[in-house]
């Protein structure tokens, strides 16, 4: 688990690299059940096939978040994106027990990527 700012930056960069270099075809397709999504903590970027990152969020349970609904889906639908062109690139996180650390990690990733569906991106401290 990262303990200082430079370790956190390194972890955030690893997650960003994984998000950026995972081929779209290997990301989780959208479905009604989300049975293939683990019920584990993680960061979940919503990616469009050609437009790139749409939204980045974090959750205690990836499957639970999508089974309960997600605002990025609504916005993508309103913007008339085809469900075949939007996928979920999941990154499992093993240290959910430290919410402050996860918030900072998410903030670093949001500042670096500025996805259009993230309404408010936290300012750097």
Which CATH class applies here?
A: Alpha Beta
The CATH architecture = 3-Layer(aba) Sandwich
**What percentage of the residues does DSSP assign to strands (E)?**
15-25%
Poorly predicted regions: none
In helices, the fraction of residues equals: 25-40%
Mean pLDDT: 82
How do the helices and strands follow one another from N- to C-terminus?
A: HEEEHHEEH
Number of H/I helices: 4
Distance between the termini: 20 Å
Report the biggest beta sheet as strand number plus sense, adding barrel if it closes: 5 strands, antiparallel
Number of domains: 1
Q: What's the shape?
A: globular
Descriptors for this entry?
five-stranded antiparallel sheet; GIY-YIG endonuclease; single chain
Question: What would you say this structure looks like, in words?
Answer:
By secondary structure, the protein is α+β, with helices and mostly antiparallel strands. It has a single domain (5-29, 37-113), classed as GIY-YIG endonuclease (3-Layer(aba) Sandwich). Helices cover 37% and strands 18% of the residues. The protein has helices at 5-21, 62-67, 71-78, 99-113; strands at residues 28-29, 42-48, 52-59, 86-88, 91-92. Strands 1, 2, 3, 4 and 5 form a 5-stranded antiparallel beta sheet that branches. The radius of gyration is 14 Å and the shape is globular. The model has no long low-confidence stretch (mean pLDDT 82).
In short:
The chain is of the alpha+beta class and 125 residues long. 37% of the residues lie in helices and 18% in strands.
């Amino acid at each position: 688990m990262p303990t200082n700012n430079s370790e956190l930056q390194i972890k955030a960069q690893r997650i960003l690299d994984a998000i950026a270099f995972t081929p779209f075809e290997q990301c989780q397709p959208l479905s009604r059940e989300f049975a293939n999504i683990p019920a584990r903590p993680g960061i979940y970027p919503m990616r469009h096939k050609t437009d790139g990152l749409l939204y980045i969020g974090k959750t205690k349970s990836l499957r639970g978040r999508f089974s309960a609904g997600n605002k990025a889906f609504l916005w993508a639908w309103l913007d008339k994106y085809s469900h075949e062109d939007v996928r979920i690139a999941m990154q499992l996180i093993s240290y959910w027990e430290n919410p402050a650390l996860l918030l900072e990690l998410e903030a670093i990733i949001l500042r670096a990527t500025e996805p259009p569906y993230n309404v408010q991106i936290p300012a750097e401290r």
